[in-house]
Amino acid sequence: MIVVMKSGADPEEIEKAKATMIELGYQPHTIEGLLRTVIGAVGDERGKPEDVEALSILNGVEKVIPILPAHKLASREFKQEDTEVKVKDAVVGSNKIPVIAGPCSVESEQQLMEIAHAIKKSGATMLRGGAYKPRSSPYTFQGMGVEGLKLLAQAREETGLPIVTEILDPHDLDSVVQYADVLQIGARNSQNYALLKEVGKSGKPVLLKRGMSTTIKEFLMCAEYILSEGNEDVMLCERGIRTFETATRNTFDLNAIPVLKERTHLPIIADPSHGTGYWQYVTPMALASIAAGADGIIVEVHNNPEVAVSDGGQSLKPKKFAELMQKAAAVAKAVGREL
Fold it and tell me: Which of 108, 188, 220, 234 is the most exposed place for a label (fewest CB within 10 A)?
């Protein structure tokens, strides 16, 4: 449920409301607005009548509103205005659309630095790159680990681009947090609840990808695990789902963008690289995502995709990425936003 405090409620009244929530078995989450404070009371119940009454009579409380969706903290009922996630100087969820780009895997210093400088020149906002890679086969390249993280940090030092990299195992969290600016949860780990809880405790911004067979309701519940640990900096990523279609690697669910924008205040990132699996479809779907209301895009870029150790077929070459950025700027302007 949501407890809306009166305009001008003093700190003692707010703390009393939070303490009462805890006594009733709820976990309070506070949003400080310009005019009033809103406190989300999160628990198993959807607001028992007796609990609603107990909170309603407290000094400083204006009203108590039950939240019906199971994804309470992620819901529009809890927070109607869009959440903005700050990553260094970038803001995700504002009128400006950030672009995250880089290779699927960090392969070498030369490879990463060449790509990082190229995407920076074309206007990318953040650098993505995998140091730990979840692969379908245990015999394929699994990533460079800590050495890859160090190379990403070096690329950040040279270009100023914040780093987005994937975390696979809670045991690696300390190492990844040390180097990363954004923790990415991949599709295969979207319902790894133990991992979601740990990244929720980390305090780092999180890019949560949709599982390949995850419904939108399930996706929002995955985000709820992170939010419930006190981490409000969560970005949702639509990266395609598994269907009967075989013409593309996945079916990019463009519908999910406006649906999620309606149901949650969290910013939505589109991943047309994984969503299609073929480089020639990445630009059209990236542009469609911006038109559909995405708050950002993430694309894979490789300087020599023919010999990439992973996902070369869906990676844009730097020249193609530069062309995408030009087209994306035009589409963003057409819908009243900017790149």
Answer: 108
Is the domain of 155 the same as that of 301?
Answer: yes
- Domain holding 30, by residue range, is 2-65
d(CA 105, CA 89): 25
226's CB contacts (< 8 A; 6+ apart) are 196, 197, 199, 200, 206, 208, 234
For 85, the 3-state DSSP assignment is strand
Q: Span 164-168, mean pLDDT?
A: 96
In the predicted model, what is the mean pLDDT of residues 219-228?
A: 95
pLDDT digits (tens, 9 = 90+) for 229-251: 989 999 999 999 999 999 999 99
Q: Is residue 10 part of a domain?
A: yes
Are residue 135 and residue 59 in the same domain, yes or no?
no
pLDDT score at 70: 78
Check pLDDT > 90 for residue 134: no
Structure tokens given for 305: 């995709």
In this structure, the answer to whether residues 252 and 136 fall within a common structural domain is: yes
**Residue 89 and residue 35 share a domain:** no
CATH code of residue 286 = 3.20.20.70
Let me know whether 40 and 164 are in one domain: no
256: tokens are 């999910």
Six-digit token pair at 133?
């890679």
For residue 72, report the phi and psi dihedrals to the nearest 5 degrees.
-65, -55
The CA-to-CA distance between both ends of the chain, in Å, stands at: 37
Q: According to DSSP H, which parts of 77-145 are helical? A: 109-122
Mean pLDDT of the chain: 93
Same domain, 128 and 250: yes
Q: Give the residues across from 209 on adjacent strands.
A: 237
pLDDT reported for residue 135: 65
